[in-house]
Specification:
mainly alpha
Length: 355
């Protein structure tokens, strides 16, 4: 009898491991589709307060979804309309900077690097000269490769226009049918659990929605403040650097460092603001993000400790790259709600069971 039980247990473990392995590989194969669905869900959670408001003023859900989707689309178009001219101007300035001004100011740049070497016992000037020499020797091949890459990217963008239309339709139908989907989920469980399942779905919905909207607002504020700070100092390419800071802020801990590196590299060039002032801008923005934006916008959206966040972000990065980093916290927050609900219900059942 004991041997049979051990065999069944071993069989269950093997089958579970095989199922997890197969599921993981299926998810990897379906990564592009999953990414599209995730982006659509992010948009739906972003506009859900607007949809709920429109429904509260007696607008039908279908029409409310259409209005919210169109307003978000209009906001995105206006954002691009306002940002694109400035970005194009900065790109032109960057090309001029890299092709002419940088070469002219090379002696001054090396002098500044020598000063940093002497102050901090570094070897920046030697590294810079080595990589500059390597870049100049490889420049013709790099330019040809860049042109080929740009052509490939352009063709890819044109051929992937269907993705944009698919995303629009996904968002529209998700907004329209999200309540129906939640209702259908409750039908999968016995009627006696319906109230608990509704409460559970509502809690998950609230936490994930709060996290997504809070993260989006955090990124916007970080981008704006970085742009303002760099602009006040007279930093070239402040708009691009601000957008980069806002976009990379979604990647916890690593993103802000990645965003600061280009600005700090530019800060050692001639005719740019002081290196330490540029670093100070990024430090101040990150302090505001940690102690003002995160508590205000996220609050207790996830209830996860910093150590837990670091571990799950590393696991997410290892499993699914950037998508894993973005999804790690919402998925963990959802699992925490499920486990807490299961534990609470188990405790209640134990307390009501006669001893």
């Amino acid at each position: 009898m004991l041997k049979d039980r051990e065999i069944r247990l071993a069989l269950k473990i093997v089958l579970t491991a095989a199922a997890v392995y197969i599921l993981f590989h299926v998810l990897v194969k379906l990564a592009p589709v999953i990414s599209l669905i995730v982006i659509a869900l992010f948009i739906v959670y972003t506009i859900s307060p607007l949809v709920n408001f429109l429904i509260s003023i007696k607008i039908k859900p279908l029409l409310a979804g259409m209005i919210a989707s169109l307003l978000i689309l209009f906001a995105v178009i206006m954002l691009f309309y306002l940002l694109i001219p400035g970005l194009i101007l900065e790109l032109r300035q960057m090309l001029v900077f890299l092709t002419s001004e940088l070469i002219q100011d090379m002696p001054t740049l090396i002098t500044r690097l020598d000063e940093l070497d002497q102050r901090f016992n570094l070897q920046l000037s030697e590294i810079f000269i080595e990589y500059t020499d390597q870049f100049i020797r490889q420049a013709p091949g790099n330019i040809q490769q860049l042109l080929r890459s740009l052509t490939t990217i352009s063709m890819g963008v044109v051929s992937q226009i269907w993705v944009v239309f698919a995303l629009v339709f996904l968002v529209f139908y998700m907004v329209r049918d999200i309540d129906k989907v939640k209702h259908n989920l409750t039908l999968l469980f016995p009627r006696i659990y319906k109230e608990n399942i509704v409460h559970l779905l509502s809690t998950i919905d609230e936490k994930v929605g709060a996290y997504i909207r809070g993260t989006l607002l955090k990124c916007i504020f970080v981008g704006i403040l970085t742009w303002l700070g760099l602009s006040i100092l007279g930093m070239p390419f402040a708009l691009m650097l601000g957008i980069l800071a806002g976009a990379l802020n979604i990647i916890l801990y690593v993103g802000p460092v990645m965003a600061a590196i280009p600005a700090l590299l530019l800060a050692i060039m001639p005719d740019t603001p002081n290196f330490f002032l540029i670093a100070l801008v990024y430090i101040i923005v990150q302090i505001l993000d940690a102690f003002v934006f995160t508590p205000f916008f996220l609050g207790k959206a996830t209830d996860l400790s910093p150590l837990t966040v670091i571990v799950i972000v590393l696991i997410g990065a290892q499993l699914m790259g950037l998508l894993g980093i973005i999804l790690a916290i919402p998925i963990t927050a959802t699992l925490k709600v499920l486990l807490f609900h299961y534990y609470l219900e188990k405790r209640q059942n134990e307390s009501t069971t006669p001893g």
